[in-house]
């Protein structure tokens, strides 16, 4: 019932790539791994699929066992918790199930939204949660959305979650996505000794695959498999060809007009200012960002984008795109602001 936790677990704190979208959850998770603390109990982490919730929960379990090897630690998905509970009912072993679960020092339940609508299991879980916390045990939970958005969730369970610490993991910004790719490549160094992966290709992946680290790493593996494994050089053109279907599938349907309107509102400008010939910094930079996003989020050609910006030449658009890419690579705060604007535009259309 209580499997051993491997101290060599691949999901650890030291290989979790930290950035503004997940730094609070990472810091609180490290505290929770050190032992029960009232203000972190229970710890509830929520965020979309593939953003690192499972990594953090398993890292907590791993670190807790390293700190105290005798500690009784159990990591389960909510589905596994339900299956174990149902099995105990059928085998008339409910008391044994309760005793084993409630005697833990640390219980981690992943994807707890799976409990929604399962009244009997939620009833047992509420009592288990109360008993564990009362006995000094630590509880860590995760879900793909805030507790308030999980339908048919027991009000007592919602109350417990609100009584601890709630941490949200956001989608990573450009700088963090690039760092995730860079670290993944460093881990591949032993496997592919002569691998040369240009920075332009890293930028391309980080720009185009913005959904989750899981899909980002999947795209990286696709490129590596189609190049390094067969002796092909990694180039931007090759990467674009390999990931063409992936990029097209993930491209959000926004128009240049949407981008101009959203960028103007984001920076407190009028659309006339954005399209004007004025060259003051507070107008030029937002204009360049709008051109960059038009290139990233629409299928419009460079000349077409230039035309939508008061008839500018396509070379002006190229310069804008290169400038924004360079600034994003050099300044993580700037990259996060561009990413925030991109998210605001895609949320409107999603």
TrEMBL record:
GO cellular-component term (any): plasma membrane
Name of the featured protein: Chromosomal replication initiator protein DnaA
Assigned keywords, A-Z: ATP-binding, Cytoplasm, DNA replication, DNA-binding, Lipid-binding, Nucleotide-binding
Boundaries of every Chromosomal replication initiator DnaA C-terminal domain copy: 255-324
Family note: Belongs to the DnaA family.
Pfam families hit by this protein: Bac_DnaA, Bac_DnaA_C
Ranges where the AAA+ ATPase domain occurs: 39-167
Gene Ontology biological process: DNA replication initiation; regulation of DNA replication
CDD domains: AAA, Bac_DnaA_C
GO molecular function: ATP binding; DNA replication origin binding; lipid binding
SMART domains registered for this protein in UniProt: AAA, Bac_DnaA_C
Matches recorded under InterPro entries: AAA+_ATPase, Chromosome_initiator_DnaA, Chromosome_initiator_DnaA-like, Chromosome_initiator_DnaA_CS, DnaA_C, DnaA_dom, P-loop_NTPase, Trp_repressor/repl_initiator
